[in-house]
Amino acid sequence: MNVVTYAGLRDARPEQWKEAADDFAALATYVNQASVDLRGDTGAKVDEHWADDTGKQASARLYALAGKLDSAYDLLYAVKMVLEGMHTTVQTAQSTLNEALHLASEYGIDLDDQGRPTGQETQYQVVAEIAALHSQALRQATDADNAARAELAKLRAAVGVTDPGKALTLQGEASHIEMNAFAGMIPAGQDPATVALWWSGLTPQEQHDLMLAEPVQLTKLDGIPESAKAQMRGTDGKFDRTKMVDYALQNWNTKDPTHFDNNCTNFVSEALLHAGMQRKMGFWSGVKGGDDWGKESGTGWDLLDTHLYFSDSWAGAEAQQNFMLKHGGEEVPRSQARPGDIIYYEQQAAGSSNDPGQTHHAAIVTAVMPDGEIKYTQHTDSYQNVSLQGRLPHETEAEGQQNVRIVRPHPDWY
To answer: Engineered SS bond to 311: which of 61, 127, 203, 292, CB 3.0-4.6 Å?
Structure first.
């Protein structure tokens, strides 16, 4: 295992990781566009104007090449995510290390050549806090460096993968490596005073980035300002966005109390209910009044319960989207997405069994990265913290062009 040294972290240039990540992102975009062009204009022209056996063979070769480009896109985007995680991790670790150095200077505490406090027994508490910050910074950078090193080696070995399914799996694994890097930035288990020092040593932008990437961990950590926790939970007090995210992350691969054949929207509703969103039900009509959101106690038989004891907006993507927007919710651009928002997929053009304009899928935003990349968690199929931008080309290829809508609920019925 490689250990990041004090001098190595102090002198690191994390902007170089960012530059490399941007280069891989640009290359991934270029490769994806090439795949789209092969299937679109080029493939369509071959199919239209070259209908004999030779044309069919040429068309098949073009579509096979497009599939290889899809795999290349996944691998390039995977590298981009790992590099983004390293950039933010090292940059934040440097801020933590600088806070330790600032604290030592403020109290006149000597440091050895590794940046560790020495002596000063009369200032035990400050020395302990400096040591904790120093240890946090080096541990964070070391863990991220080792994880990134191993992941990049795995991706380098996979450069010949041409199966889009395998490549997409690798992309998902890289997404988790990036998320693990963010989780490793948080000083879990430290005393509140050290946590408060760590937090104050971060720049406002670094604080903002962590609040979007790891809201669940931060809200559970003593020493984080209550104002920051309130912002992550949701300032309107109607439901706790971090509990919604926590439910999704903890239950992404478990069965909900009642399971629908297409369970994506039911999963979103269960997360909202666990987060404190109150049901909207008619006194006489229950959940079947046409403008309701909720569920009632059923028989325990899913086949019967799914038809009788749930509102249309509980488990239907389009009905839920329209209900949330009608009752206080707002649609926000992707650039403003936050954990606890809901992603809806609206069919934009023909290409699947869904009619154009139909909303057919729902998922939960569970993290947003500093570069704006959105991570989501869902059921049917079950995924945890996968990349919206990374997976969207596959959704488009499988289902046709999609209009991705981000909806932020603000319930107005209570």
So the answer is: 292
- How does pLDDT run across 272-284, given as a tens digit for each residue? 999 999 999 988 8
CA dihedral 136, 141, 144, 145 (to 10 degrees): -150
What type of residue is 169? T
Q: What pLDDT does 80 receive?
A: 98
Confidence of residue 39 (pLDDT cuts 50, 70, 90): confident
CA distance 376 to 372: 13
Of residues 180, 250, 188, 198, the one with CA closest to residue 219? 188
Phi then psi for residue 79, to 5 deg, are -60, -45
Tell me what pLDDT residue 164 has: 92
Residue 171 pLDDT > 90, yes or no? yes
Rounded CA-CA distance 317/359 in Å is 6
- The 10s digit of each residue's pLDDT in 364-404 is 999 999 999 999 999 999 999 999 999 999 999 889 899 99
Both tokens of residue 28? 């991934």
CB distance 253 to 380 below 8 Å: no
* Chain segment 180-231, per-residue pLDDT in tens: 999 999 999 999 999 999 999 999 999 999 999 999 999 999 999 999 999 9
- Please state, for a pLDDT cut of 90, what percent of the chain lies above it: 80
